[in-house]
Amino acid sequence: MHVGDRVKDFTAVDQNGNATSLYDLLAEGPVVVFFYPKAMTGGCTTESCHFRNLKSEFDEFGARAVGISTDTVETQAEFDRVNGLRMPLLSDPDRSIAHQFGVKRPGPLPNKRSTFVIDQDGTLLSETNSETNMELHADEALEVLRAHAGVPNG
Asked: What span, in angstroms and rounded, lies between the C-alpha atoms of 62 and 102?
């Protein structure tokens, strides 16, 4: 998948047990999909909480952050409860969504840490990859949304 491509729809179960599709989320505005390796770990908690803390800024663009990992629905629910994330956390146990986005690692290794900004029409606007800079993902997603809306950064 490359910037400018139309992202194929997918459906996964969120932390509340609800089937959630990308296109249903896009009906409400742009979506920022962030893949994280494992819930309840230090780096993934830092990254997810940074998305949570920037919620009002994402709201300015009508955008919603959505986390995806291979964790079970129950683990995603606990991750949300412990950290007050209040955003969709999707379970991708067979890593089919990770495969679609090109972030599936071989064998039993967790998915790559990557973030994708998807415009409301389903067009991929950007991709961010960093295994070590946990705040980069949300920060760059906001920069992309600002630029796409014609709002100067800073």
From this structure: 26
> Which has the closest alpha carbon to 115: 145, 85, 149, 86?
145
Catalytic residue set? 44
Name the residue type at position 141: A
Which pTM value belongs to this model?
A: 0.95
- Do 135 and 53 touch, CB atoms closer than 8 A? no
Question: What is the spatial distance between Cα 58 and Cα 39, in angstroms, rounded to a whole number?
Answer: 22
Residue whose C-alpha is closest to residue 24's, from 102, 104, 90, 108: 90
Strands 89-91, 19-21: parallel, antiparallel or unpaired by DSSP? unpaired
The one-letter amino acid code at 65 reads A
Element (DSSP H or E) covering residue 66: strand 64-69
Amino acid at 109: L
Q: For the segment 64-86, what is each residue's pLDDT rounded down to a tens digit?
A: 999 999 999 999 999 999 999 99
Q: Who wins on pLDDT, 131 or 10? A: 10
Query: Residue 41 — pLDDT band, cuts 50, 70, 90?
Result: very high
Identify the pLDDT of residue 153: 67
Q: Taking a C-beta distance cutoff of 8 angstroms, is the pair 40, 79 a contact?
A: yes
